[in-house]
Amino acid sequence: MTSTAPPATAKAPPRRRRSRWSWAWVALSSLAIAGYFTGQYAQGTLDALADRHVGLADSYASQATVIRAAFYVHIVTAGLALALGPWQFCRRLRTRRVRVHRGIGRAYLVSVALGSVSAFVMSMFSSVGLLGFFGFGSLAVLWGWTAWRGYRAIRERDVPSHQAWMIRNFALTYAAVTLRLWFGVLILAQVPFAHGPDPFPAILTQAYAPLPFLCWLPNIVIAESMIRRRGLPALHLTAPPARSAAPGG
């Protein structure tokens, strides 16, 4: 009597396993930062938080009511976009729960639309002046524009272009995470060279100064690299070369 061994369970290829780990890191870090920066501003009024020097409260507590309103709109909608964004890239959700994917996508796009407009308003009152206006203002404009391009592509049933634009868009959403990572790195890089009785205010100021651009420029470069690796429609600084006609064509 012969016995048949059960078939061996196929292992996921290394590339897919790395993709799962990358997605898990992005999802967990996004949820952590979304919870952190929305939670810290839910602990009191903007004036009370400014007295305790919480986050950006110092910069916006003394502004006009409309600017304070834009601040809170941005905190809520950017936090929601950051929490929802990773789920748009969950393969299982996209293929098996299409309605859920679409519902999350709509909520995400509305959050980005409101968040980008309020972020642009906030950029005019950045604590780092013109650097903040041009850096965070550019981020806000590109954030809204890439969301619009992604929406328009899916309305035209152009799925590859939709995927490419949403990768770019979430790379800009993820600037909320990379800003805080870079901030920590730049603070630690200065600590060994600190001197004086209280060097940390200067350290914090110098660490924050490059963040209006540093928080998102590397993200968009990485996003474009991912788009090219996946064979999705990539951006070109110049017109792509025309394909030569096939022999005999």
What does this 3D model show about the protein?
- α4 (65-84) packs antiparallel against α6 and α8 (159-173) runs antiparallel to α12 (217-229).
- This protein has helices at residues 14-40, 46-51, 57-60, 65-84, 91-96, 98-123, 129-155, 159-173, 175-190, 200-208, 211-214, 217-229.
- 27% of the residues are buried.
- The longest helix has 27 residues, at 14-40.
- 69% of the residues lie in helices and 0% in strands.
- The protein contains twelve helices and no strands.
- The protein has one domain.
- It is globular, with a radius of gyration of 22 Å.
- The N and C termini lie far apart (63 Å).
- With 249 residues, the chain is an all-alpha fold.
Structural topology:
Elements lengths: L13 H27 L5 H6 L5 H4 L4 H20 L6 H6 L1 H26 L5 H27 L3 H15 L1 H16 L9 H9 L2 H4 L2 H13 L20
Helix pairs in contact: 1-4, 4-6, 6-7, 7-8, 8-12, 9-10
Termini separation (Å)?
Answer: 63 Å
Helix and strand run: HHHHHHHHHHHH
Radius of gyration: 22 Å
Low-confidence stretches: 1-6, 244-249
Q: Write down the overall mean pLDDT.
A: 86
- Main sheet characteristics: none
* Structure class: mainly alpha
Number of domains: 1
Number of helical stretches of at least 4 residues: 12
How would the global form be characterised? globular
Task: Indicate the proportion of strand residues.
Answer: under 5%
State the helical fraction.
55-70%
According to DSSP, the number of beta strands is: 0
